[in-house]
Amino acid sequence: MTPAVVLSLTLALVSSGFAATLKNNVLNDVLQQYLRQSGAANTERPTGRIIGGDRVIDRCVAPFNAMVALQLMPNNPDLKVTYCSGVMLSPDLIVTAGICLFPYLSFEGPVLTAVIGEKHFDFQDDSQVNVLVRNFKIHPTYDSVIGDNNIGLIKLDSPVTLNDCVQPIMRFVRDPTTCSSTLMNCTITGWGQSDENGDLTRNAKNPMYGMVRLVDENLSVLLSSKGTYTTPLRQNSLYAIAYPNSPLQACLLDWGGMVACNMNGDWMLRGVIGEHNCIPPGTSSGPIVITNLEKFASWINSCSADFNSAACQAYKLPQSA
């Protein structure tokens, strides 16, 4: 069972109206099946959220003020759930992982809402803005089975008002004076899908973050081709590696989380979390797979200029025979 199928089933369960009484063992069965079919030796349920990291305490500083939570039913405290993350590129454009949007191509679920500026899951924060999603597009070459080209864009129903806690992030600009194959000062963020008690229908109270080393494309491809890691590198992706002796992992439904690097004092968006690495949980199962936004610059620019243009192409489900 692919992550896209797991997410579709999760959204179906949440939208069915039983989220308030949904038992962990229901999602356990789904996730256990995913683990077995993915070849994991240890079939314990994966833990949600960035683990081995820290809580984001100040959401009103870069890069955290560009974080977006993709929520279902945000106005219902008993049913609301953040199932993926995103990053604000402009007042009305969000980038996320393609897997986060894929279920909505064939699944009539609850209205999807982008929540920006949220500091604490249980409260309506002063800086928090909830905006409905007007439209979304997944990259036309996205592969829902393999996970290649795992990126999507969200057009908000209306632009948000910017403030200290709600700011778009700068996109990555390569430094011509730097020849290093690894960016050292990078952070990953995510809301995850579990609180401290492991309830998959609830979220961590605060977004989480952790520092990683981000390997560039050429070295990532080399490491993958040599079998250095068991984690396969997807097309147009990079490896993010935790620091030595760090337990940091991205976990189930941290997809779409921000991967930002500090370049000469500026935080720049290098990618989004495309694939988690916490199977089996609590152990290192390889690097985190990051969608390399640099490879999609032309598509993002086209969609940013005109979301309805022919140049802003979108993935289409294969026609059934």
From TrEMBL:
<comment type="similarity">
    <text>Belongs to the peptidase S1 family. CLIP subfamily.</text>
</comment>
<dbReference type="InterPro" id="IPR001254">
    <property type="entry name" value="Trypsin_dom"/>
</dbReference>
<protein>
    <recommendedName>
        <fullName>Peptidase S1 domain-containing protein</fullName>
    </recommendedName>
</protein>
<dbReference type="InterPro" id="IPR009003">
    <property type="entry name" value="Peptidase_S1_PA"/>
</dbReference>
<feature type="signal peptide">
    <location>
        <begin position="1"/>
        <end position="19"/>
    </location>
</feature>
<dbReference type="InterPro" id="IPR043504">
    <property type="entry name" value="Peptidase_S1_PA_chymotrypsin"/>
</dbReference>
<keyword id="KW-1015">Disulfide bond</keyword>
<dbReference type="InterPro" id="IPR051487">
    <property type="entry name" value="Ser/Thr_Proteases_Immune/Dev"/>
</dbReference>
<keyword id="KW-0732">Signal</keyword>
<dbReference type="GO" id="GO:0006508">
    <property type="term" value="P:proteolysis"/>
</dbReference>
<dbReference type="Pfam" id="PF00089">
    <property type="entry name" value="Trypsin"/>
</dbReference>
<dbReference type="GO" id="GO:0004252">
    <property type="term" value="F:serine-type endopeptidase activity"/>
</dbReference>
<feature type="domain" description="Peptidase S1">
    <location>
        <begin position="50"/>
        <end position="305"/>
    </location>
</feature>
